[in-house]
Amino acid sequence: MGIFSVLALPLLLLGISGIIYIYQSVRWLLSKSAVQNKVVVITDAISGLGKECSRVFHAGGARLVLCGRNWEKLEALYDALISVTDPSTTYAPKLILLDITDISCIGDVAKEILNCYGCVDVLINNASMKVKGAVQSISLELDKKIMDANYFGPITLTKAILPNMISRRTGQIVLINSIQGKIGIPFRAAYAASKHAAVGFFDCLRAEMEEFDISVSTVNPTFICSYHRQAAPGNWEASIWK
Ligand SMILES: NC(=O)c1ccc[n+]([C@@H]2O[C@H](COP(=O)([O-])OP(=O)(O)OC[C@H]3O[C@@H](n4cnc5c(N)ncnc54)[C@H](OP(=O)(O)O)[C@@H]3O)[C@@H](O)[C@H]2O)c1
């Protein structure tokens, strides 16, 4: 009886400190962003969806590499991101020019991307070209250009980044695709065909990458009404942060 009363207080204190420790650890884990310090590459970061992804990842503390084919728009996005976040908890994004249809340059762009931080944790293949028209009114040249933008471009970039992920046995590849990669509707043949091709490629890649612990996701949205579409004239970058 005597020994229990001597040990009761230390045991109680030990139990309470254990509970406090677990509580604080869970709080710390919940507050930690999943993308903090991760190197995240977004192609066509200046599109409606690309800008929103950039904002979310930047605020989460990711080390962003933002790609786009228009330098002024990339700089405007950079300024908008920097102006709304705390510089002590975020990284200044790196900017890289990338025209996704320029297949012969993508290898060099991939080297530039890898040179930024030495690795890529998350690659978001967002860049894409849209076209609408009857099959007989779309030239074969345009069909091929759409295929370059929506299929050959993303797969070329992915293939160039993949060896880095495989060697590190970690990574996440995301394809922003479209519901039109799953179904066909009138007047979208070129776009839908390229999006179907991309889904096929990335579905196979997912199966191949499983053994390297690299995850491959395809996102197939329907219509997205982004702030980009509703931007006030002359104030497009500010309008996305509301
Ligand atoms: N919005 C939707 O409803 C919707 C639905 C389903 C899927 N998606 C997918 O979501 C992704 C983003 O689309 P979004 O609607 O956000 O785009 P968006 O706001 O309509 O902007 C189109 C973008 O495409 C860029 N672009 C065109 N040709 C390019 C090229 N050769 N290289 C690099 N960039 C090029 C344009 O750049 P410039 O400004 O330089 O011309 C512009 O930033 C795409 O993969 C799209 O297929 C969108």
UniProtKB/TrEMBL annotation:
In its UniProt record, which GO terms are filed under biological process?
A: intracellular calcium ion homeostasis
> Which GO molecular function terms does the record list?
oxidoreductase activity, acting on the CH-OH group of donors, NAD or NADP as acceptor
Give the stretches traversing the membrane.
none
The residue range of the signal peptide is: none
Keyword Cytoplasm in the entry? The reply is no
Q: Which Gene3D superfamilies match?
A: NAD(P)-binding Rossmann-like Domain
Name the Pfam families on file. Answer: adh_short (PF00106)
InterPro entries in the cross-refs: NAD(P)-bd_dom_sf, Sc_DH/Rdtase_CS, SDR_fam, SDR_family_member_7C
Keywords of the record: NAD, NADP, Oxidoreductase, Signal
UniProt xrefs under PANTHER family: DEHYDROGENASE_REDUCTASE SDR FAMILY MEMBER 7C (PTHR44668:SF2), PTHR44668
Q: Which family does it belong to?
A: Belongs to the short-chain dehydrogenases/reductases (SDR) family.
What name does the UniProt record give this protein?
Dehydrogenase/reductase SDR family member 7C
Gene source species: Lamprotornis superbus
